[in-house]
Amino acid sequence: MSRTSNRADGDIVRDFLSVADILEKPQLAQLYTYFAREGEATVQDVMDDLDFAQGTAYSYVNRLVDAGVVEVTHDEQPRRYTVREIDLTVTTAAGNREYTITPALIDAVGRRESNADIDTYIDRHGVAGLATALTYGVARERGEVTHRLMAEDLDISPLAAELILQALRPVVYEHYDIETSGTSVDELEIGGADAADDA
Amino acid sequence: MSTLHIADTGLFVAMGQPSNGRYQAVRRFARRNDITFVLPERVYGELTVDEPDVEEVPVDTAIDEGWADVAAPLTFSEPIVSRAMDGVQRYIANADDRAADEVERADAALAALAARHLNEGTATEVYIYTTDIAAGEGAETVLTSEGYADSVTFVNGFRFIEDLLSPGCKRGTELR
Question: Distance (Å) from the C-alpha of residue B77 to the closest C-alpha of chain A?
């Protein structure tokens, strides 16, 4: 194996460890998602928009920079930061299953602090379980599965499935292309008087 | 002409608690248009399951307030009810490359309830409010093949509530 490819292997392992670190710490996930959404931001922006104390904001930004998932784009004060895109595919040794860790999963984990349903779900099923739920969330919005199928597959109650699917829905819409479906309220032909008024 | 409004689990979960603006918007919509949301028995069962660490879904409050009700148990003596049931199970199974018998029967109960009322003539028009697109589209497709194309409408529960809350919505904001 050449020296260059060895170095590339090291990069992959480093990315993997960085991502694992972010997924363990919801504030880091929230911060990564913030930079990804903003494109470019300063520590002051982080303090203002995420309501982080100054010390916390600096320490978390530095952790993301050290991990190599966020980089400085503008080195003069105030420094501006941007993300390095994460798209890491993990494959099992047998090669029969793989999962890609995407910004969507990081976003979902980052919402743990502000969303009780995501928090409860991670408590019960871990970040790994949340990754599975996110896969179902995308499939459900695409009309491929229902909350009941998810409940049956994962051996949870249909209500628990519906709750986490609804909690993850904003993440799904932010990171995936989904077509809208169903009829809008104004198209409903309810009651004779309404129909006449609308004509 | 009578209209039936069938609600799935996701609609009630999406409304939140009675103090929530979403719940209030749906209740206002129901009252202004003189609508009762009917829940298949299985849906009511899902909503009232005891789930630890989860706030109770206020379906019983809606029932007490008079704008929601639980449907009588489905009987399968009418062939159209069984056909609707099987048809939707096949539709959902197909969407995800599964065997039809793996599909939960509650998914098909929405369409089966619609089929019963259309067939018996107790409803001439049915709206199905669900957050499961596969279940809503499946119901529309199957009932269309039964000749009820113009009588069944799938309403996406999320979009329904978002529409009711949007300032431009005629039915959500104006008193009639």
Answer: 25
